[in-house]
Design the sequence.
């Protein structure tokens, strides 16, 4: 990898880290998407790097929040994520390409429909959802992650519709994604795919991730809670449209 390519990749990681620290999600979407579009490295390599540096981002961003965290919610999410990932990976092996593309198109359609509704009405619910709702959203997140490598949307919807402040939502999302990144990293290591290139890139990126996380904590964007929710739902709409485009192009 050339110096120019490396610096471009680090700049993208810095932007993705800042965004994720502020909203609770987005590093994988930004870094994997931009790196793939620019041809900086393979999807497998950058996805593995993102899983590792997500742990650093979460560790720095979540300093001092353990006592403020509703661990019952986190446990409920993880309880759903674990079987969801297993089911997603199993389905990916079992289903034909056409069936997988159909599911991807359906997922994209549901994301767009929900995002439009939430964008028009960004106010959170009046009451916190029950624990079973968090288990189901965790399962949906794990299933989408196992099938399509995009675990975020179900959990993002679930948390941003709760009567929580933005900081609480961000922290809960970061903790949840820290668990999923840990699981994914262990899975890659067991498969013997955590090679030297991935470890070196992740090691080089750690100072960038740490600095960007610190800057995001100290200098968040001056957005109201409603504006932040609208921005999040707008981004989810783009994710849904992206999935639809990929599905339709596969059918074509």
Sequence:
């Amino acid at each position: 990898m050339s110096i120019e390519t490396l610096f471009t990749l680090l700049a993208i990681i810095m932007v993705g880290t800042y965004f994720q620290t502020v909203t609770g999600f987005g590093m994988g979407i930004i870094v994997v998407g931009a790196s793939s579009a620019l041809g900086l490295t393979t999807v497998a390599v950058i996805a593995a790097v993102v899983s590792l540096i997500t742990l650093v981002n979460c560790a720095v961003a979540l300093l001092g929040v353990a006592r403020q965290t509703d661990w019952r919610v986190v446990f409920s999410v993880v309880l759903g994520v674990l079987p969801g990932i297993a089911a997603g990976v199993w389905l990916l092996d079992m289903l034909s390409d056409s069936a997988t593309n159909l599911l991807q198109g359906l997922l994209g359609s549901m994301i767009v429909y929900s995002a439009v509704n939430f964008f028009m009405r960004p106010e959170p619910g009046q009451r916190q959802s029950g624990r079973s709702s968090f288990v189901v959203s965790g399962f949906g997140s794990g299933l989408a992650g196992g099938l399509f490598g995009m675990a975020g949307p179900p959990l993002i919807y679930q948390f941003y519709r709760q009567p929580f402040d933005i900081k609480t939502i961000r922290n809960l999302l970061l903790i949840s994604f820290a668990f999923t990144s840990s699981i994914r990293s262990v899975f890659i290591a067991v498969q013997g795919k955590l090679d030297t290139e991935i470890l070196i890139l992740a090691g080089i990126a750690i100072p960038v991730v740490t600095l960007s996380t610190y800057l995001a904590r100290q200098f968040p964007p001056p957005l109201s809670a409603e504006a932040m929710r609208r921005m999040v739902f707008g981004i989810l709409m783009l994710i849904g449209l992206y999935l639809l485009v990929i599905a339709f192009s596969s059918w074509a």
